[in-house]
Amino acid sequence: MTAFLLQQVVGADWHSLPRVIQRHYEVQDGQGSCLQGVMTVNYPTLMLPMVGSIRLFGGLIFRRGQAVQTRVEKTASADGNWLHWQRTMAYPDGKTHFFRSRMAYLAEHELLESIGYGFGIRLQVAVEDGDLVYRSNGHVWQCGGICLNLPDWLLLGTATISEHAVTQDKFYLDFTIRHPWWGETYSYRGEFGYC
């Protein structure tokens, strides 16, 4: 059996991950998995123009909120090269927002997460004290044969995403972006379990 995409990325460290985190990445050959949870989405008002610009490329969630009911569906491509993410956020006022992306293997401990129009983010991936941790390592924009590399500081800053096991069936997700000058510029956080 071929290794799952994340298993290929983290290599031998896969076995150091708690089972609750392994389970939601165990998708391949057109299979899928589903998570649900409640999140808080936040960013300073000063960041509205930048977050709005990134949203035009299909990234992030533009709307801030508390108690946001979130469903995350992941599907592996038939060839196993991509892991597609569909995030659906239902806000307390009944409005729904979506955020889609896809991840691909770049090298051991490195992924590319693409959001649309050729825009993506390079992510270093590690297992640290049982937590799965992603750290951004610059952004890329590809258009035709042109590929531009953009440092994190040019946009919102460096993203850190961690998944920490809470129980055998739940984990806590913390996605935070920090800029060297402006501090925390964006975050979403919440606890997730299986659908």
Task: Please characterize this protein's 3D structure.
This protein has 195 residues and is mainly β. It has a single domain, classed as Lipocalin, CATH 2.40.128. The chain is 10% helix and 56% strand. It has a ten-stranded antiparallel β-barrel. Strand 10 and strand 11 form a beta hairpin. The model has no long low-confidence stretch (mean pLDDT 92).
**Poorly predicted runs:** none
Identify the CATH class: Mainly Beta
Structural class: mainly beta
- How much of the sequence is in beta strands? over 45%
Number of strands: 11
Give me the CATH fold name: Lipocalin
Indicate the percent of residues in helices: 10-25%
Topology of helices and strands:
Elements (H helix, E strand, L loop, with lengths): L4 H6 L8 H5 L8 E11 L5 H9 L8 E12 L5 E9 L5 E12 L2 E7 L2 E10 L2 E13 L2 E5 L7 E8 L4 E10 L3 E12 L1
Antiparallel strand pairs: 1-2, 1-11, 2-3, 3-4, 4-5, 5-6, 6-7, 7-8, 7-9, 9-10, 10-11
